[in-house]
Design brief:
transmembrane helix; membrane; 351 residues; ROH1-like; mainly alpha
Length: 351
C-alpha cells in the first residue's frame, strides 16, 4: 500500500476511511492487511474493466449489464470478506448494523425503480412487434395499422416513468452515508467499514450513471472524490472521469443521453415511417424491405439487451435481499425467513 497522501478537498465532504484503519488501538495484522489488499485490488480491476475503450459504449445496455454484474460481484465479495474475518453478525456493533440495513434498503429501492423502467421499455417492444407483423404485406390497410402502432410506440417511449423520480433523492442519501461510523478497538470492524465504503462508492457511481441515462439528463450526475490511500482510487478516478465526461459531453453538445440501442430503433422507425405512411411504388419495395429487415434486427437487439440487464438487476436485488435476510436472521437467532414485505422476485414486485 502506497504512502498516504493528503487528499484534495472532495466535492462531497466525506470522512477519510483510511484514518479509521490507522487509528491507535487496533492496527491491522498482516493477515488482515492481506485480506484488505486482495479486496481492494480486485475492486480496482473491476473498475478498470468498467472503463470503456470506446467512451460512447457507456450509453449502451451492454455497459449497463457489465456495471450491474460488477457491483453484484463486489457486494458478494463483501459478504465473503465477512466470513473470512470470522466476524459473525451477532458481534457487530449497532452502528455497523444500522449502516448495512440502511444501505441495503436504499439499494433495493433503486433496483425496483430501474427494473420498472426496463419493464416499461420492454413493453414498448410490443408496438414494434405488431407493426412489423403488419408490414408483412403492402396493403394500405396494413400500412395504416403499422403507422398507428409506430405512433403508439413513440408516445410510450417518450412517457416519463414516475418511479425514476425518487432515484436522485435516494442517491443523495447514499452519498451522505458514505461518511461511515467510527470504529473503536476493532481492527476487523474497521476493515469491514473500509470494504463497505468501496462497494458503496461503486454502487453510487453505477446507479448515478444508469439513472442519468434512463432520465436522459446529465444534470444530477454524482461526482465522488476518493482518498488516494485506496488501492482502487486511481482506477475509480479514471472510470468516473471518462464515463461522466462522456455523458456530459453528449448532453452539452445537444445529443440525447439515451441508450444507443434505443437510438438505433428510433432512427430506423423515423426512416421507415414516411414510406409506410405514404406508400411506396413498386420500384421502391426493395428499399422498404431493407428498412423493415433493419428494424427487425435493431428491435431484437434492443429487446434482448433489456432482458439481460433486467436479469442482472434482478440478480443484484436477490443478492442484497438475501444478505439482509441472513443478517436479520442471525440477529434474531431464529433462522427466520425473508421479511414478508420484501419477499419475492424483483420482477413480481415491479409488476
Amino acid at each position: 500500500m502506497g504512502r498516504p497522501q493528503e487528499p484534495q478537498k472532495p466535492f462531497f465532504p466525506f470522512g477519510n476511511p483510511f484514518r479509521m484503519i490507522s487509528s491507535k488501538g487496533s492496527q491491522l495484522s498482516p493477515k488482515l492487511v492481506a485480506l484488505l489488499n486482495a479486496f481492494e485490488e480486485t475492486l480496482a480491476g473491476r473498475m478498470t474493466k468498467l472503463n470503456p475503450i470506446n467512451k460512447g459504449d457507456v450509453l449502451s445496455l451492454s455497459w449497463m449489464k457489465l456495471a450491474m454484474d460488477s457491483i453484484s460481484e463486489t457486494y458478494n465479495d463483501v459478504k465473503s470478506l465477512i466470513t473470512k474475518l470470522e466476524l459473525p453478525a451477532c458481534d457487530w456493533d449497532d452502528k455497523w448494523i444500522d449502516v448495512y440495513l440502511d444501505i441495503s434498503v436504499k439499494m433495493l429501492d433503486i433496483c425496483i425503480a430501474f427494473n420498472s423502467e426496463l419493464s416499461r421499455l420492454s413493453q414498448g417492444h410490443l408496438f414494434l412487434k405488431f407493426a412489423l407483423h403488419n408490414l408483412d404485406s403492402t396493403s394500405s390497410q396494413q400500412f395504416a395499422k403499422a403507422c398507428s402502432l409506430f405512433d403508439g410506440w413513440r408516445k410510450h417511449i417518450n412517457t416519463k416513468n414516475p418511479r425514476l423520480n425518487n432515484c436522485w433523492t435516494i442517491l443523495d442519501s447514499l452519498v451522505e452515508s458514505l461518511d461511515l461510523p467510527k470504529v473503536k478497538n476493532s481492527a476487523k470492524g474497521k476493515l469491514l467499514m473500509r470494504a463497505m465504503y468501496g462497494v458503496k462508492v461503486e454502487i453510487v457511481f453505477v446507479y448515478s450513471v444508469i439513472a442519468a441515462v434512463f432520465s436522459d439528463s446529465a444534470e444530477r450526475l454524482v461526482d465522488l472524490n476518493v482518498a488516494e490511500t485506496h488501492l482502487w482510487a486511481q482506477a475509480f478516478k479514471d472510470l468516473q472521469s471518462n464515463v461522466n465526461g462522456e455523458i456530459r459531453n453528449a448532453s452539452s453538445s445537444g445529443r440525447s443521453v439515451v441508450l444507443k440501442e434505443l437510438e438505433a430503433v428510433d432512427a430506423t422507425v423515423k426512416r421507415l415511417y414516411p414510406m409506410v405512411q405514404t406508400g411506396v411504388a413498386s420500384d421502391h419495395l426493395k428499399v422498404l424491405q431493407n428498412s423493415v429487415t433493419e428494424l427487425q434486427t435493431v428491435t431484437e437487439k434492443f429487446s434482448t439487451g433489456l432482458d439481460l440487464v433486467a436479469k442482472e438487476v434482478d440478480g443484484f436485488f436477490d443478492a442484497v435481499l438475501s444478505g439482509r435476510d441472513a443478517l436479520l436472521s442471525t440477529l434474531r437467532g431464529d433462522g427466520g425467513k425473508v421479511e414478508p414485505k420484501l419477499a419475492g422476485n424483483l420482477g413480481q414486485i415491479v409488476r
